Amino acid sequence: MPLRRRTVLLLAAPLILAVLLALAVLVLNTADWNRARPWLNEKISLALQRPFAIRGDLTLSWAWPAAGARPPGWRAYLPMPRLLARDLHLANPASMAEQRELASVASALIEIELLPLLQQRIAVPLLRLEQPQLHLLRRADGQHNWNFAPPRESSAWRLELGTLQLGNGQLQLHDAVQQIELTASMQTLDHDALYGVAWQMQGHWKQQPVEGQGKAGAVLGLREQNRPYPLEAVLDVGGSRMAVSGTLTRPASLTSLDLQLSLSGPSMARLYALTGVLLPETPPFSTSGHLHGELGAHASRWHYQNFIGRVGQSDIAGNLEYRYGTALPRPQLTGAVQARLLRLSDLGPLIGADSNRSKQERGVAPVQPGNKVLPVEAFRKARWTALDADVHFTAGRITRDKDLPISQVDTRILMRDGVLSLEPLQFEIAGGSFNASLKLDGSGRKLADAIAADLTAHARHLHLKQLFPRIEAMQATVGEVNAEVALNAQGNSVAELLGASNGELRAVVSKGSISKLLLEEMGLNLGSVVLTKLVGDKQVQLNCLISDFTVRNGLMQTRLFAADTTDARIDVDGQVSLRNEQLNLTLRPEAKGVRIISLRAPIYLRGSFKQPDISIDKKVLALRAGGALALAVVAPVTAILPLMTSGSSDDADCAALLAARRPPVPSRNVR
């Protein structure tokens, strides 16, 4: 080709392209786009597999790209066609055609880049919807109107959406499966530097009131993945409140959130409705911290970092991580929680041991009978298989109302496939230590309708006077307690588990001292009590105290229960029914040496745990008093002799007590 002709073609090509573009713009501007509505309605209806219609005018205009929707590079300086469609409607699928339509939009403004069309790309830098109305519906059978099946045939064309703007609109949700009825409205904010829209929501979820409000950015950037999208929301569901403030950094894939989160409510268990995370029953709580979420198609992870808060009157802090995904059999909760000061009463709701008033405040029916002490509230084991957990819990100090300090609590809370374990559970108490292993199997593999429980525990070097800080006579007492417990049971509450338990309990107090006044009062040695009050109390050598119980089907039977001091020995026989919460114990004090004016007689501890009854054997007491009265007539000087007792002066230590073990004295069965 001659050089001159080639030069002419090179100079003419841009001119020809400009003419073609001008002709295209002229055709596009002068065309009646309303004639294209039937064709567009048909194609979009086929793609969505439900009726779609543009009922209003369809017009085209040209404009420079908006500041927040400009394409990259030199294309940002080219004008774009804007297609404005009015009165758009999207119906429900044919199976739900009788219901209200899925969506309607007063107007939709669509900016389209021309050059990407040559590459079979529909690039939409901006989509703005005015007055959108969305009606989401799910029936009781699970069928819902927002299910869009994938296209029947693959297409070489692909859609690329840059930014989305929403004007005033409304959303309604009717979900029969989750029992949700919600209405949310949205308004445009014209003079807010950070947020562009505000929204309000109200309705019900499972007969609980739901309210919410918040703000969001004016433009949702779907193409620029690193552009932060501001969010602010407050949501209240049945008294549980969640407040968030932060940014969504990847709105197109919804994969990253960075939020400041605050939570509060009557019980952490109520958060299941808001978060889907299974948490235990607690007193009213509040907490705040930093929440970072990474959401993916196959796995997601949430970090609740550096949170602080209160549970009842106790403080908490820590870090938690919540993960779920297709590779996990169930969601997983891991992390560490610390408490500087934890009140023992705040742990009551964990096992239903709080008051009926507290139960009402945390949304649980007040099921505890007035005459029962052991908690009857059932464990919610139906949810145990919904979550696996591995949380390390520590507490600097646990206190109760009567000042029994527990410190240095350390346990690992494990939930694996419906089996809850605290292993090990250890803490310091009354100057000694307590170590336990507790396992509750609610998986249904061992028992279909109940929990299988196993407990082993031992206490070492507990100081007597610290165990009873409010009993004045115990404050001069010296001695250490060592105890062991091994129990297994089945049931659905603390009361059921203890009422069906089997195992044994042992405790030994060795080589200490105990208040003489306390012993004299137990033995009803009136003269000695008076003398002790006059001259002062003193310590009596405690050789040994042993309690040894067997437990069969919730019935505790004494094998050996005795206390031996230099002045007296006290033997205890009988039963304690954990199933019926009944006591049937007999205390038989035996003095060593001479006691003046002693009304010593067997002491009976009967009644219920709620209302125990302590009484004296009236027959023995009457015989002693009657003998004294008869002697007073014959020989007044000898009248006090029946009220004087003498006993063996032999001392017995723990080994001697164990060697002298005898079968328990028969007593009434209180089962």
What does it look like?
It is a single chain. The chain has 671 residues and is an alpha+beta fold. The protein contains ten helices and 32 strands. The chain has a 32-stranded mixed beta sheet that branches. Residues 517-536, 620-652 and 662-671 have low confidence and may be disordered.
How is the secondary structure organized here?
Layout: H1 3-30, H2 37-48, E1 52-54, E2 58-63, E3 80-90, E4 103-111, E5 121-130, E6 133-138, E7 158-166, E8 169-175, E9 180-188, E10 197-205, E11 208-216, E12 219-221, E13 229-237, E14 240-248, E15 256-265, H3 272-275, E16 285-295, E17 299-311, E18 314-325, E19 332-343, H4 356-361, E20 388-399, E21 406-416, E22 419-429, E23 432-441, E24 451-463, H5 464-467, E25 478-491, H6 494-499, E26 502-515, H7 516-523, H8 526-535, E27 539-552, E28 555-565, E29 568-577, E30 582-591, E31 603-608, E32 612-616, H9 618-634, H10 654-659
Parallel strand pairs: 5-7, 6-8, 19-20
Antiparallel strand pairs: 1-3, 2-3, 3-4, 4-5, 4-6, 7-12, 8-9, 9-10, 10-11, 11-13, 13-14, 14-15, 15-16, 16-17, 17-18, 18-19, 20-21, 21-22, 22-23, 23-24, 24-25, 25-26, 26-27, 27-28, 28-29, 29-30, 30-31, 31-32
Which properties best describe this structure?
671 residues, alpha+beta, 32-stranded mixed beta sheet, 10 helices, 32 strands
